Amino acid sequence: MDFTINFGQRPIENGDLLLSEPYMKDRNFERAVILICEHDEQKGSFGLILNKPSMVTIEEVESRLAIDSPIYVGGPVEQDTLHYIHKFKDITNAVPLKDGIYWGGDYEEIQELNTNGILNESNCRFFMGYAGWENQQLRGELKEDSWVVSNARLNHILDEPVDEIWKNTLIEMGGKYKVFANAAKNIRMN
User: For 94, which DSSP code?
Assistant: First the structure.
């Protein structure tokens, strides 16, 4: 049986969210919400999965950061790399996404914020690895209705419980998306 859902898509922009369709077969992306940090039809796309905390804390991975919060699995690509999003507009070379959320920037400045006791999970989130697509690859996945593109507000994503981001974003989108927010994880349970 084919359980694909025709979502009808809009173009992707930096700062958009990609939400996996309810019955994504790839476990890396099961009910995933991906923040698109960089999108270029010719060069490819880069994003971070927002709702997949790992079993390790940031401090266990990076001893120079004393933050007792989980590090997130940003995606299946290069899981030995560290990435971060934050709410600090003055970090040198930070890339503005939208709604006061920034990607990357000077790591020493992030460490300094940590040393000064300013860094916490509600203003900065760290990721190991990322989700990546080669040129045109994401377009093909969108045509297959593997993803829903959302331009939802980002100002709440660091405050919202991670296990609710997928569902709440679909509800916020309204209409047919609101229906999918309540889809059972196992299609046989519907």
Answer: P
